[in-house]
Amino acid sequence: MKTILKLFIGAAAMALSSCAGSEVDLYTITNGNGMTVAITNYGGRVVKLIVPDKNGNPTDVVLGFDDLTDYYYENNLTDFGAAIGRYANRIDHGRFILDGVEYQLPINNDPHSLHGGTTGWQYQFYKLEKKSKDSVTLRMDSPDGDNNYPGNVTAYVTYTVTPDNALDISYSATTDAPTIINMTNHSYFNLSGDPANHSICDDILYLNASNFTPVDNTFMTSGEIASVDSTLFDFRTPSYIGTHINNMDDVQISNANGYDHNWVLDTKGDITVPAAELICEKSGITLTVYTDEPGIQVYTGNFLDGTVVGKGGVPYGFRTAICLETQHYPDSPNKTDWPSVVLRPGQTYSSHCIFAFGNTDAQ
User: Fold this and answer.
1) Which fold has domain 4-362?
2) What is the pLDDT of residues 266-276, one digit of tens each?
3) pLDDT at 74 over 70
4) Catalytic residue positions?
């Protein structure tokens, strides 16, 4: 029998279902200043993120579903809103060597392993650690051998809504054996709140990055760190996303069918310096990203094709959302000269990301 949970945010209702043997919970956090975030323990997912637009209207700026069963791996291979682990992004052919031992991970993004494997943390249940009006902390107890990763890992993700309309996300993890870890949030943003009628190609993007990591036609990084100078990947001056996104004469655009790349941030781990900014002129909503991570993966919804039907029965079409995933670089375990993702006993992994929302009238 299915258990139905309902979340009422304003006039909207979201029906959530649980599968047999799994307890599904939903947590609402708010700041009393027009921002409300709903998070489920299934995958640690942000299922609603409501902020005011330039006219003060509450606007849900993330893609997702009205029914939690639609998040289940069996129904939809989606990462909407998820707290990704153990390893965000791709690992080349699912293989890496740690302390002389080779590990083979599940291949779930042929020919590579993506976002922690076939049953990564986005397809598992986090446990509630603590909850307040404006914050929730979830815990993941990941056993040794989870998707063939070594070590028993205990990880935490804390979502906090700040008084100035930011979603602050902090991650931490410990292990009892050497392992690798690289967590991120995989929200799909459409700042218009109207994915049926608005493409992110019409939004303006700024990236504080002078370099990026090119990929081949399997989306795998080569190990090169390339300058964005005189390329279609230079967003150091704010530019419309759609300006060059369809230029398939560019090898990198062609390889990824748009933008699906890691940018090497110039922020040097300083979380007080903006790493990225997204501006939607239609709603007036702005999103500024801060992080202590060295990279940010920008994915422009290139594989959304309308077959996934989301909130309100809206088919999520081509490029109706953008992901801004703060993280270490893809395939870092196999690139020893890149920032390390190795976590050892006695150490604590930590990562911090802030999604700060505003509007153009306030600038």
Assistant:
1) Beta-galactosidase; Chain A, domain 5 (2.70.98)
2) 999 999 999 99
3) no
4) 186, 325
